[in-house]
Amino acid sequence: MSTHHHPLKQPVYDPQTSFIYDDGLWAIIDQCANPSIEQVRAVLEKARQCQGLTLEETAVLLQNTHPELDEELFAVAREIKDTIYGNRIVLFAPLYVSNHCANSCSYCGFNADNHQLKRKTLSTDELRREVEILQDMGHKRILAVYGEHPRNSVNAIVDSIKTMYDVKHGDGGEIRRINVNCAPMSVEDFRVLKSAAIGTYQCFQETYHKATYEKVHLKGKKKGFNYRLYAMHRAMEAGIDDVGIGVLFGLYDHRFELLAMLAHVQELEQNCGVGPHTISFPRIEPAHGSELSERPPYEVNDDCFKRIVAITRLAVPYTGLIMSTRESAEMRKELLELGVSQISAGSSTAPGGYQKALERQHDAEQFSLGDHRPMDEIIYELVTDSKSVPSFCTGCYRKGRTGDHFIGLAKQQFIGKFCQPNALITFREYLNDYASDRTREAGNALIESELASMSPARERNVRTCLAKTDGGERDIYL
Ligand code: SAM
Ligand code: SF4
User: Fold this and answer.
1) Does the CB atom of residue 109 touch ligand 2 within 6 A?
2) What angle do CA 88, 93, 94 make, to 5 degrees?
3) How far is the CA of 145 from the centre of ligand 1 (A)?
4) Which of 429, 442, 351 has its CA nearest to residue 394?
5) Relative to the alpha carbon of 185, which ligand is closest?
6) Residue 146, strand partner residues
7) What is the pTM of this model?
8) Which of 38, 138, 355, 421 is the most exposed place for a label (fewest CB within 10 A)?
9) What distance in angstroms lies between residue 338's CA and the mean position of ligand 2's atoms?
């Protein structure tokens, strides 16, 4: 394997013409139906080289009917996760800034036709308060979420991002990376968004099946399938090279969706020079004011969901996979092993939700819950149950290491050199500043065992950084 460098390039595309070909994708699905045990094993064997999969190979795995091969699939996913990522897990908190929305997506509680919903766009003060609460839990990364509404213009979004970056609460509280999930915009507006020093720009296609897309998007700008499909082309044209894509599982056949999402990945790699930085796996959750969300037409059960995550790990080994903490603790543990690399900790999906949760705790006064409890508990569970190292690292984009610049061996060495050390250093900072005693104890034990498996030179280097952190320095990263 060699060092491949993929600089961002100006994409050339026809925004009127979709690059998702339904007939072609269905033909692949049909061709690869009912694969033999040998066919499935051959694809699994190839996947172990960490070079990704073709659409056909992915379709074979998606249609495996031999249950005894599921364990083999999961084993390969675990192996890839271990070789490429190790046991780090990146944590972030979603922050809903505004639920004002002019669209009507039939699966979402924010839809404009839901007159039951209390609409709220956080004021600067309210937003600061939410960020303070997250900082007190130890968060360094935020995913800021906005409905699509004239109130949430790019300028309003940029202002809110500035507000969030400016908050410095308590000793060492600060947000070091803000990823943004908002409606797609013009190239010009994306340039403005980029100027706010955002991390990843996230936007999910929801469904890549145009007919289904048109059925569930009833109103507003989101109705245009192609406009959303080319969102990432426009973002990249504007110089945003960390983008996150996703499917909302439950709307249409998951085999089609996964293949189409891979076609999207290939299109971005070929035409923009860089694939997506992350892929998210939302599953439709019940939402007030959305009938569809109560009974999703293509509901994905837990077993199927696990296979989807594992197959994605094999198909795009170098892309970060994001899962929400709304998944149960048991699922979370399994999906982490299968290749999820980021999870949200803290899961309020209402603007002002973190403040409300605090008030409820204080009102209830049933237990004297520390404000830090949810995050601290998730971390304790990660450390003790899955031996994962929670990482608060935000080094790369601040050092200009963005886009998927390196693949193959180079990326693996890169992770050993930067990601693994930075995970330990930022985790130590968290433990010192925010953790409960039992979490600190368990966390420090894990750090020691991680150090023991490093080369002596690297161990020395990391120990120096840990000592500085213990001495009160913050935000140290390689
Ligand atoms: N308005 C922007 C948009 O639609 O892209 C960003 C905010 S929207 C709330 C963010 C994501 O929430 C959507 O892309 C969708 O995948 C997800 N979502 C909407 N309704 C959901 C539901 N009932 N369950 C789980 N995820 C949902
Ligand atoms: Fe609005 Fe986004 Fe919800 Fe659709 S998914 S109703 S655009 S917030």
Assistant:
1) no
2) 130
3) 9
4) 429
5) 1
6) 98
7) 0.94
8) 38
9) 30
Q: Which atom of ligand 2 is nearest to the CA of 112?
A: 6
Residue nearest to atom 9 of ligand 1 (CA): 147
- 274-317 pLDDT tens trace: 999 999 999 998 888 899 999 999 999 999 999 999 999 999 99
Taking the C-alpha atoms of residue 318 and residue 313, their distance in angstroms, rounded to an integer, is 8
Sign of the CA dihedral 224, 228, 233, 237? positive
Q: What is the best residue among 113, 120, 248 to mutate for testing ligand 1's pocket, by most ligand atoms within 8 Å of CB?
A: 248
| Pocket of ligand 2 contains residue 111 by CB under 6 Å | yes
- Which atom of ligand 2 lies nearest, measured to the CA of 147? 8
Residue 349: nearest ligand to its CA? 1
Distance CA 70, CA 55 (A): 19
The answer to whether 251 and 290 are in contact (CB under 8 A) is no
Distance CA 312, CA 295 (A): 25
Residue 393 has phi, psi (to 5 degrees) of -65, 135
Task: Report pLDDT digits (tens) over 215-226.
Answer: 999 999 999 999
Residue nearest to atom 4 of ligand 2 (CA): 105
- Kindly report, residue by residue over 30-39, the tens digit of the pLDDT: 999 999 999 9
**Which ligand is nearest to the Cα of residue 326, counting in written order?**
1
Distance between CA atoms of residues 310 and 317, nearest Å? 10
Closest C-alpha among 296, 268, 266 to residue 282: 296
Q: Which amino acids bring their CB within 6 angstroms of ligand 1?
A: 107-108, 110, 145-148, 181-183, 203-204, 206, 248, 282, 284-285, 287, 293
pLDDT category of residue 403 using cuts at 50, 70 and 90:
low
Return the structure tokens found at 330.
């048991």
The predicted model gives 349-359 an average pLDDT of 84
In testing the pocket of ligand 1, which one of 121, 181, 193 has its CB within 8 Å of the most ligand atoms? 181
Distances (CA, A) of 65 to 68, 125, 154: 9, 55, 47
| CA atoms of 261 and 92, how far apart (whole Å) | 24
pLDDT at residue 411, as a whole number = 67
